[in-house]
Amino acid sequence: MLRYLTAGESHGPALTTIIEGLPSGIPLTEEYINTQLARRQGGYGRGGRMQIEKDTVVISAGIRGGLTTGSPVCLVIENRDWFNWSEIMSPGTGASLDERVVTKPRPGHADLAGSIKYNHRDIRNVLERASARETAARVAAGATGRVLAEQFGIRIISHVIMIGGVSTAPAGPNPEEIFQKASRSELLCADPAAEEKMKEKIDQAKKEGDSLGGIFELIITGLPPGLGSHAQYDRKLDGRLAQAIMSIQAIKGVEIGIGFAAARVPGSQVHDELFYDPERGYYRETNRAGGLEGGITNGEPLILRAVMKPIPTLYKPLRSVDMLTREPYEASVERSDVCAVPAAAVVGEAVAAFEIAGSLIEKFGGDSLAEMKRNYDGYMEYVKQV
Asked: b/e per residue, 332-360, with b = 16+ CB within 10 A?
């Protein structure tokens, strides 16, 4: 089983990720992971933290000579801002617990619920871990899944299709063209005209002390049929992908294929008809299912979209109540972004990549990449003959 755990606080010494279950022989370097970390930090509308942190990873276990060994992999990302918080956030008994205390919960955050659950009087104990800063660790973990998926010709891309109510024009069927256009955009948007309108919306929100959300789309190509399973609820790949995406901070909805639009049209406009050709084998002329049927990949590109709510930390604070005095106050203001939808898309790629990697390991087994590839090649020969 492939799994990972993250640890660390937003203003703590570092973020740490431990990945267990990676086969040996996977090529993986710090430079590869750092490329993905840099993508997470980009985007128009980001806040001051992105000017402080320039995330780089240190591989401290599980890789030798640029190849995984089969042992747990440990990745560490130092927080540069730790220098300014070392006394307040110190794990030792001498920590300055009476400084920068937060008692006014911010609406839309884990502040109040987390403080009640864990019996904290200082909300900082909650917000430091609930912060989206944690997603840097998940992007690092996702990079290990991405590089494994790439060994089997699987491509994972994302692009932003809406911010603040401004939607892109249909992107077309060519994922590589979408990737090339989106990669040149500050908003990871493949539609330049829509991008300019999105930027105007972001600028206006910033002037007003507000924030904006949006929608991003993931496209995963090169998937073989047969990943996931219909046999048990927790083995359905669509369920696992939806959980992984929904676990990203501020994500409020996930759809696969035509998603929620399926509720508005008859079944004849929802399901993909099947055809057979001796050269192509089984194929579909549409992909409304988004590459998944019954929790199993069907060989078509996997299409997934996610909704990100506007970030709830506003420079125009919402009303709240002080947890100590019970008096009404404006919520505390922490440094934040105006819009982080492009960053969320990169995180979405990462968590999806990890789930895809896990499903590959489950399907093709093997303690080494070489063994997995032998099993994969044999399976694909079988698929051609079905």
From this structure: bebebbbbbbbbbbbbbbbbbbbbbbbbb
Mean pLDDT for back-to-back runs of 10 residues, the chain (386 residues): 96 97 98 96 70 85 98 97 95 95 92 97 96 96 98 97 96 90 95 96 92 97 98 97 98 97 96 94 95 97 97 83 92 77 97 98 95 97 92
CATH number at residue 128: 3.60.150.10
Reported as type and span, the H/E element at residue 330 is strand 328-330
Instruction: Name the token pair of 316.
Output: 């125009």
pTM for the predicted model, two decimal places: 0.95
Name the domain count of the chain. 1
Cα three-residue angle 189-192-198, rounded to 5 degrees: 65
Give the single-character DSSP code of 269. Answer: G
Six-digit token string for 42: 């980009």
- Alpha carbons 205 and 111: distance in angstroms, whole number: 24
